Amino acid sequence: MDSRAEDWKATILLVDDEPKNLAALQAVLEPLAQNLLLARSGEEALGLVLKHDLAVILLDVRMPGMDGFEAARMIRGREQSRHTPIIFLTGVSAEVDSAFRGYEVGAVDYLMKPLVPEVLRSKVSVFVELHRKNAALIHEIKERRIAEEQLQESQVQLRALAARLIAVREQERTRMAREIHDELGQVLTGLKLEVTWLAKRLAGNQKPLVEKTETICRLIDSTVRLVRRISTGLRPEILDEMGLVAAIGWQAGEFQKRAGIRCRLKLPADQGALDKELSTAVFRIFQEILTNIARHARASSVNVDLNISDDRLSLRVADNGIGIAGGQIHSRESLGLLGMRERAQLFGGEVSIQGASHTGTTVSVSIPMPRPQSGPSRDIHANPPSAEE
Residue 2's CB: how many other CB atoms inside 10 A? Predict the structure, then answer.
């Protein structure tokens, strides 16, 4: 059991102008082991009501100055104590007729003196238990709200961290791509020049060495192509130099050559001043979609539709493959799909996936635009599959 529940006590207010009556009420209610507050007037009771969260109020009807009815009206008129139960106590039998007046001002019960201790304790216990349950519920709601706020704050921090990690990774990819392309490319170019120089100076009767230099040159050329492929895979220059639309077209063409899956593109003629980070995010999402198609779809064709309007960027990629199971769409193990959604969410966008068995899969990306964008669309057919690669 929670130690806080064991230590919890309700606060009960006893109001009577006679000290002996207060002492008697206190003695009757002490077995309940709750906090008892004593007040000798309606005015004093009102002051205590403002300071404490009360489970129940036992209020004497006849008091000099502010009587019980007036005190009850004042208590009910305040937001903090509007719903606090009030039990009226009276020592004059003739006042039974005024019980209705007590109920009109908000009393929940009306008891005659002398009081029966067991009856009074039983009635007060009911309101103490109700107050305990209400307090526990309020505490649970507060804790849940705090937990939700902490969870939301954690999600904000995690997304900020994810955005930072993605940005750092893209920066590192760009740096590595440039170093590989420029430095390693220059070394390989220099090496080929040296081998070519050497080959020209070999005598005609040194045919084995001439053939060896030719083999080395072919190997260097192959390595240069490999370097360019790795560099482009890390960060395609076309994305930085010509923008997202051109990069989407280039990537679809590369995908078609390697996977042998025909791509039909519908791209805007002009992308405008598209944000660099947004362009990178959409391009990486597109790459992940094509990767999933190549690995799982068993498709023969893919339709790609990119639209950039004043307020939204939309990308739709549909294949004619075997489809995707509903459980896979929202699976936490589908890291590629999670990564696509996370990239879109960083820009306030969303990724939706629709598919059924043998009907293909459609991935739709929708991201709000920070600046107006426009441009008509044109139909493009990527180059047919090539047997070179």
Answer: 9
CATH of residue 80: 3.40.50.2300
Q: How far is CA 27 from the centre of its chain?
A: 55
**374 three-state secondary structure:** coil
Q: Using pLDDT thresholds of 50, 70 and 90, give the confidence band for residue 389.
A: very low
Cβ-contact 27, 50 below 8 angstroms = no
pLDDT at 324 > cutoff 60: yes
Maximum average pLDDT range among 182-186, 194-198, 327-331: 194-198
Q: With respect to residue 152, please indicate whether it lies within any of the assigned structural domains.
A: no
Residue 352 near residue 364, CB atoms below 8 Å:
yes
| Domain finish residue from 233, 253, 280 | 233
259 & 322 share domain: yes
pLDDT digits (tens, 9 = 90+) for 105-127: 767 888 877 888 888 888 888 88
Helix ranges restricted to H, 180-263: 185-200, 207-234, 237-242, 244-259
Q: Are residues 212 and 250 in the same domain?
A: no
| Residue 335 buriedness (CB in 10 A; 0-12 / 13-18 / 19+) | exposed
Helix (H) and strand (E) counts in the chain: 13, 11
Q: Are residues 93 and 40 in the same domain?
A: yes
Does the reported pTM lie above 0.85? no
pLDDT of residue 378: 47
- Quote the percentage of the chain above a pLDDT of 90: 16
* Structural tokens at position 265: 């593109």
Smallest Cα–Cα separation from 258: which of 389, 80, 63, 76?
A: 389
Q: In the sheet that 361-368 helps form, which strands lie side by side, from edge to edge? A: 350-355, 361-368, 312-319, 301-308, 262-268, 377-381
Q: Contact, 318 vs 361, CB < 8 A?
A: yes
pLDDT, tens digit, for every residue of 93-103?
555 556 666 66
Phi, psi (deg, nearest 5) at residue 136: -65, -40
Same domain? For 256 and 305 the reply is yes
What average pLDDT does this structure show over 199-216? 82
Would 151 be classed as within a structural domain?
no
Q: For residue 192, report the phi and psi dihedrals to the nearest 5 degrees.
A: -65, -40
- Residue 131: both structure tokens together: 């107050």
Residues 252 and 368 in one domain: yes
How would you classify residue 88: left for phi > 0, otherwise alpha for psi between -120 and 50, otherwise beta? beta
